[in-house]
């Protein structure tokens, strides 16, 4: 029985995935549970296992290539089974019909080749093998005459399109240099005569690229870059900074830390600040909101995101319903999410639905920075390093452990006064953490 390997849908927002690596090759036998491939989405990477037994008969999407969700990327079948209908290699049945003799215009095509069809979403209808060949050879599927059923492009259509003669206008000198350099004139032809300078320019570009150390950006990095640019350009962000005295919070952590260690838990300053935010964000609903299409959404729950630096980029899993959690529960859930993010085991649902985000770069010695809002959220809190500084206390200069907090808010929704009040209340509880008992 022929079984299709499809690009999985890992999470509600996934639309495409990139194959990082195949753990199998064509001709390998796999059992249920064997690792097939590793796929990268815009948020995470996952290893996909086989849900059936058989031979890997065909792989359509190779390492580093991208395919849409539910697209056919491979075939598992028994040895000798016919898979030609899926690869686009099936021979068409030709039916002979009696037709009346009519005069045919020699300019008309005797065989009906329809342009490639599109579905309602504009997706080109083509077999996976045809798409693979077209991608490898740089052929535009929309320009190919389709001979498959209902306007589907099959592999032979792509191959025939590539063999069609393209008349390239080129000077004799340019042609000679192109032949010497191994440059395909069709690749650089734009409709105007190719001259010597055009060929030399292409050659120089290729030599320059060879000297550069390049790397294809991962899906996470590409999506992060796109979103950061869009967020920065489309949101009037304002960052507020306040310095807080960490003396009492450090004391509280030092007293609780041994108790947590006995229970196998970790207690960090992040956990305590998250607990503070879980209380305040219920009160400051404008900061625990989303702003999309001129509509403000006030969230009933606080889903607090934590920015996690992973090898491929930045991930923001969120602790859902944190306002109902104890400090112990916050510690346990936060560390679980961070570990799963770093080991590629994170459930995609943990990356969606956030209502507020924190990001901590204090371990890198930063005193202040401008965190960028994780849209459609309207605020993000940056946590900086703790450093001993001289401060005036009761008209005396003393050394205290001080830390800056950097709050960025969407000024189109959150006014400056509200941001300042929120930040000052965080400061008040950090400097008097026993207020958490209320």
**Sheet having the most strands:** 6 strands, mixed
Number of strands: 20
Strand residue percentage: 15-25%
Radius of gyration: 30 Å
Helix content: 25-40%
User: What is the mean predicted local confidence, pLDDT?
Assistant: 82
Poorly predicted runs: 91-112
Number of helices: 11
Structural class: alpha+beta
Largest sheet strand order: 11-20-19-18-14-17
Determine the N-to-C terminus distance.
65 Å
3D shape = elongated
Give short descriptive properties of this protein.
438 residues, six-stranded mixed beta sheet, 11 helices, 24% strand, four-stranded antiparallel beta sheet, alpha+beta
Descriptive account of the structure:
With 438 residues, the chain is of the alpha+beta class. The chain contains 11 helices and 20 strands. A 6-stranded mixed beta sheet has the order 11-20-19-18-14-17. Helix 2 (128-137) runs parallel beside helix 3 and helix 9 (269-283) crosses helix 10. It starts with a strand and ends in a 7-residue tail after the last helix.
Task: Break the fold down into its secondary structure elements and pairings.
Blueprint: E1 3-6, E2 16-22, E3 29-30, E4 35-40, E5 45-49, E6 54-59, E7 66-68, E8 72-77, H1 84-87, E9 114-115, H2 128-137, E10 145-146, H3 155-163, H4 172-181, H5 185-188, H6 196-211, H7 219-234, E11 237-245, H8 247-262, H9 269-283, E12 289-292, E13 295-298, E14 304-306, E15 308-310, E16 313-315, E17 318-319, H10 327-342, E18 356-360, E19 379-393, E20 396-410, H11 416-431
Parallel strand pairs: 14-18, 18-19
Antiparallel strand pairs: 1-8, 2-4, 2-7, 3-6, 4-5, 6-8, 9-10, 11-20, 12-13, 14-17, 15-16, 19-20
Helix pairs in contact: 2-3, 4-6, 9-10, 9-11
